[in-house]
Each structure stands twice: as C-alpha cells, then as structure tokens.
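Comment thread on ticket #2218

A.B. wrote:
> Attaching the input chain for the structure job we discussed in standup.
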Amino acid sequence: MKLATLTSPEIAALSRETPIVIPIAALEQHGAHLPVFTDSLLVEEVVRRAHEHLSPQILVLPVMWLGNSHHHMDFAGTTSAEPRTYLDLLFGIAQNWIAHGFKRIVFVNGHGGNDVPGRQVIFELRQRFRERKNLLLLMATYWSLAEPATTVKGLSQSEMGHAGEWETSMILRISPDLVKNHKQVPPVQPTEQFAPAAHGWIMPDRSVQGHIGYPADATAEKGEALLQCFADGLTSFLWRALNWEPNGTPD
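C.D. wrote:
> Ran it. Output below, let me know if you need it in another format.
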C-alpha cells in the first residue's frame, strides 16, 4: 500500500502491526553526469520493487527527499538539512506513526550521509519509548542489504561509491535521458586511507569532480541487475520486519 493514495479512514482501519516503510534520501550533486535527485530516484525504485512483492502487507510513505548533505555543499544544487535538524525531522516522523498506534517503523535509506543520523534516530526513539515491548524501530541503507559485488557480473567497483559505476548504471536503467556523457567521465579511485577509523571529510577532500568510482563502466544492464539485487535484499529484510515477534507481552 502507498500512503499517498489512501484516505485517512482507510489508514485508520489498517492493522497496527503493518510495517511503516519510510524511504529517505537526498537532493545533492552527483558529479557532472547524474541528476541531483539521483539518491531519491534510486531508493524510490528499490522500494517500489520490494513493495510489489509485499503489498498490501506494508505501508510505504513518499520519499523524504531532504537529507543530510552538508559534505556536498561545495557543489551547486545541493540542498541539505543541518545534521541535528535532520535527525529531529526523522524522529518526529516516526513519532507521528507511533502516536497513530503503529508498532513497526522502518527507515529505508538511499544516501550515505543519512546513515549516522538515521542510526541515531532509532537509538533515541528506543530510549524515549523504553517501556514498550512491542515496538520495532529499524533503519537500513538499501545497498547494505545485499552483496552485488559477488552476484552481479562485470562490475568494476566493489562498493557503491558516489555517482560511480553502480549509481550511474541504475539511473541508466530507469531514466537514461538524465545521464550526461558518462563515458567521458574520468575514474576517481574510491579509497579511504584511515579506514576503519571515522574520518571527517567533505567531498572536495576526496574528489574535486564530485564523483567517486568508475562512471564510464556503467551500463543499463548492470543497472537492472543491481536494482533487482538490492530490491531482493530489501524484500527479505522487510519480511523479517513483518514476521518479527516482540519479547514480552505487548502493551
């Protein structure tokens, strides 16, 4: 089910065990070859494919396109919420649905910069509702739910990157008219010299071009395989949320 198509009485009649799926993404630069709406387009497509398998057992909200993208602010078009503001925004959205009586809240993330605030949101929510035994609070970045590097043939990259082979391939699959001359885009090696330590960085520290990876290696065929791989991973994850049984007696 899609929230945007339902009336308020129809939503009120739903089982409160229905998982509330909240896609979150960003509006930010994606190099010289991809649209600024890339993250939102991709998480929407991955969620759409999972929804096809799981509807009417889940309720999907519209994509929250505003994200935490301050590390991309050196590039035109990036629109970002302050980290704490963004965290409070997500907290409030989840709290709305808890107030409506729903017990399973699932954020599905499509932008790397949302990962830390998203994890903090569900951590803080659990503290706020610590007396509840029947509340499931989840946040997952969709590309962490599958391992395409071991299942999709022909990939040059072993990880997502930013506006690299994976994202470019997926946009080539769903909106090829939005991709600009990706075959002429030079590679930028996806390295992190301080891993596994946390490293404070902004995009120009890692790429003056605004992308990381190998956009020139992207194809629509790889994009289809990647999208389906991620959708399958998300579907399996949401099945676990559907089948979850709380510890203790529900209140």
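A.B. wrote:
> Thanks. Noting for the ticket: The domain at 3-242 is CATH 3.40.50.10310 (Rossmann fold).
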